[in-house]
Backbone:
């Protein structure tokens, strides 16, 4: 039961983190009607996860050998791109906000980019979704006797706890000020995207598309990626117990570049992008 | 921001092409690996260092298993009753442990490259 609980909690944590943040974001900018984009994105992600879980049990040959890997890598890099875009955009708007509620709503809708958060929700759910579906399905198929069914309960409880964490983020986000919310979530999204970027590069190495390299350090004795704490840290800040040189470079490089882009040049941009509706 | 999107797009395209091509390379040696009763058979796999190979993994169990290697980073789902060909990159001499993530207490094995 414990093992199943840890696996599904870890797999579902990142998705619920992302969902919690984007729902809270829409709530904060007063665009509750945009919830449907996120709900749709998440639902489609879930349905496609189930579809992929079913598909791999029927597929065979090269489609089964390579299909899931290609999809995973594409989804990882798409998620990095979308999260980067969203973080950049939030930061731009955080600068423009002068506290006028109507203004905020208009800004949020400017360019009609709410669908981007729907896509983010989709990639967030779909990334680990198929694996979680397959895992739960597997333990259900093999469930015989009390031990088997306690695994099923553990697996479902893991997903439920992850969902509860996402919900807590959504609720917690409502009670902090808008500018702080934007700053904190921008930073979180940046770390999350950096971790995903490193994961994607690691996967490319594993697929033999990038040269292999030795891990720079190995802290799996201290904090395993597979533990609950390691899984949380991996979802939150992209923790890796055995990062390779390219993974580390991409992670640090991404944070440096995005840190400067997002948090660096406040004054000049702030002046040029001053709110035109203000006298 | 557009350039980031373009860069990501290029990476993804590269990944697609790059992953699709090696399929035709049949020269890499094939090494069988069986999953049965939530264990890997054999649990020590000896391979030649510096040469890529293909793990031909057959899952004889009913449920799926996920081969999970930390270094290099490999995650591969093998549905129940299926055979998956996993192309492995050339490894330096050393030990490369992996687990079946869904049954990590019993499904443990090591690739030894020498």
Residues:
């Amino acid at each position: 039961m414990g093992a199943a609980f840890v696996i599904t909690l870890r797999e579902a944590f990142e998705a619920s983190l992302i969902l919690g943040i984007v729902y809270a974001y829409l709530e904060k900018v007063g665009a509750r009607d945009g919830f449907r984009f996120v709900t749709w994105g998440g639902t489609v992600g879930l349905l496609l996860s189930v579809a992929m879980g079913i598909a791999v049990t029927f597929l065979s040959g090269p489609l089964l050998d390579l299909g899931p890997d290609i999809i995973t890598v594409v989804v990882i890099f798409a998620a990095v791109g979308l999260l980067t875009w969203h973080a950049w955009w939030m930061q731009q708007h955080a600068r423009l906000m002068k506290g006028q509620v109507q203004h905020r709503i208009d800004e949020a809708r400017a360019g009609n980019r709410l669908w981007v958060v729907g896509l983010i929700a989709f990639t967030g759910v779909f990334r680990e979704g198929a694996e979680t579906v397959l895992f739960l399905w597997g333990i259900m198929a093999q469930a015989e006797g009390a031990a088997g069914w306690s695994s099923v309960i553990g697996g479902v409880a893991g997903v439920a706890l992850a969902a509860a964490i996402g919900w807590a983020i959504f609720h917690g986000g409502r009670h902090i000020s808008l500018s702080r919310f934007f700053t904190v979530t921008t930073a979180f999204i940046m770390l999350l995207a950096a971790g995903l970027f490193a994961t994607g590069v690691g996967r490319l190495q594993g697929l033999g598309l990038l040269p292999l390299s030795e891990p720079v350090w190995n802290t799996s004795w201290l904090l395993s990626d597979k533990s609950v704490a390691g899984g949380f840290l991996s979802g939150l800040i992209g923790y890796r117990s055995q990062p390779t040189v390219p993974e580390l470079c991409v992670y640090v490089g991404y944070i440096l570049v995005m840190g400067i882009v997002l948090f660096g040049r406040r004054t000049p941009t702030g002046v040029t992008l001053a709110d035109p509706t203000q006298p | 921001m557009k350039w980031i999107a373009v860069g990501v797009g290029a990476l993804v395209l590269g990944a697609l092409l790059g992953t699709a091509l090696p399929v035709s390379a049949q020269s890499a040696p094939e090494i069988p690996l069986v999953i049965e009763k939530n264990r890997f058979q054999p649990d020590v796999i000896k391979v030649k260092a510096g040469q890529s190979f293909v793990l031909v993994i057959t899952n004889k169990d009913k449920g799926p298993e996920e081969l999970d290697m930390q270094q290099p980073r490999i995650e591969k789902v093998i549905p129940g009753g299926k055979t998956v060909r996993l192309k492995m990159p050339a490894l330096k001499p050393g030990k490369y442990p992996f687990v079946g993530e869904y049954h990590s207490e019993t499904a443990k094995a090591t690739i030894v490259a020498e």
